[in-house]
Amino acid sequence: MPPIPKNNNNTSFSIPTLFLFFIIISILSLTFFFFSSYTTTTHSSLSLQPTTSCINVYVADLPRSLNYALLNRYWSFTSDSRIGSDVDSEIRSKSKALEFTEFPPYPENPIIKQYSAEYWIMGDLVTPSKLRTGSFAKRVFDEREADVVFVPFFATISAELQLGMAKGVFRKKVGNEDYQRQSEVVDFVKKTEAWNRSGGRDHVFVVTDPVAMWHVKDEIAPAILLVVDFGGWYRLDSKLSNCTSSEMIQHTQVSVIKDVIVPYTHLLPRLHLSENKERHNLLYFKGAKHRHRGGLVREKLWDLLNNEPSVIMEEGFPNATGREQSIQGMRTSEFCLHPAGDTPTSCRLFDAIQSLCIPVIVSDNIELPFEGMVDYTEFSVFVAVGDALKPSWIVNHLQSFSKKQKDTFRQNMARVQPMFVYDNGHSGGIGPVPMDGAVNHIWKKVYQKLPTIKEAIIREKRKPPGVLVPRRCQWRPS
């Protein structure tokens, strides 16, 4: 029987082998250490970021007479001679009970409808919570839990009621019911604990109509204002550059820092990309030729472009006939002209987007909704006023775009169309809002401003008694 070999458990290693083994262990240990440190630091920094997916909104307890009852009153009118009122007169003749409805519809008169943001924002907030699963704004019923306080005043309807009944006293206080309502709103909120705690800085007012809240603008200026542009708040007819210039936006009135630019309500139906057909015209515009202030450029553009080939310049008003002409014109044109009117913007821009007509924005200082969330250069053409007023410049510039470029513009436009839609498709505006619609994007923009607003509230607390913040010019690059 052969001898059994000995089981030798003493394994010997050479010095180089041991050294290599030590190096490997050291590298693995250091790698684990740095990875653990990085992971801990990353998780720590992430925990400091906002994790909420909503903004907490408290609705100020204004009486119904300052919102939905104003609509009841509007629908109780037996006649209205203003431009565009024919469509509402027809609605009145078919629906006799609108003046008694709890949640009446918003006017279809395009002059009023374009400013209907107040209606859709309010409708979302009063919708039962179980139906608001897609809303970015979470309604809370204790103001101490709120990020912001929404003031549910239908300022546009209030102003339009006064203009419809007695336009002559609109800029006066005596005999002006709109002024009385504005004062009632301001008196109400200023007596609340929430306003006194923040100085109104966390209150939200919808003032889309340029004449809305006209008499109390200074008093609500500290608040977050939802506006379509800054055209109704300052004039552009001064060349001065000091603090007395009417061209400068006072920081105590409106500012892109605290306020939110919101879309006009579009008046034309949406055209889906799959429905788009060949477009035979280069450029289209429909509107009033003669405007005031910053809109004077429109008249000059009209004279330059009116006789250009493949350019359609139509003068018209927003009645039923004008609407059909606009649908036809925008859907058969490659580009739609967007010069300033009485204010820097108009609902025409959002009609063009819904019509997949590439906007040509002629402006040197326009403000647009949801910038930072959407890049307008991906589907719009921006033109400086100086270039636009050169003979044939706009036409030559637009003709330089290739079919591929125009198709890309239109594809990008189709993707952002829902962002500018308010209508939720529900009666009275009561129902779930589209998750990718205008109302949610407005609240997301307000949410972005919360850190700055909260900082301003805290800084205000430490000011010595009697110290006032000086009025300063809005900063502008030289």
Structure explained in plain terms:
This protein is of the alpha/beta class and 478 residues long. It folds into two domains: 55-261, no CATH class; 273-418, Glycogen Phosphorylase B (Rossmann fold). The chain is 37% helix and 10% strand. It is built from 17 helices and eleven strands. The strands form two sheets. A six-stranded parallel beta sheet has the order 2-1-3-4-5-6, covered by helices on one side. Helix 6 (155-166) packs antiparallel against helix 7. The termini are far apart. 35% of the residues are buried.
What's the domain count?
Answer: 2
* Total beta-strand segments: 11
Proportion of residues in extended strands: 5-15%
Within the largest sheet, what's the order of strands? 2-1-3-4-5-6
Largest β-sheet summary: 6 strands, parallel
Which residue ranges are poorly predicted, with pLDDT under 50 across at least 5 consecutive positions? 1-13, 32-51, 234-252, 471-478
Helix fraction? 25-40%
N-end to C-end Cα span: 105 Å
Tell me the structural class: alpha/beta
Average pLDDT metric = 84
Gyration radius (Cα, Å) is 29 Å
| Morphology | globular
**Structure annotation, total helices:** 17
Order of helices and strands: HEHHHHEEHHHEHEEEHEHEHEEHHHHH
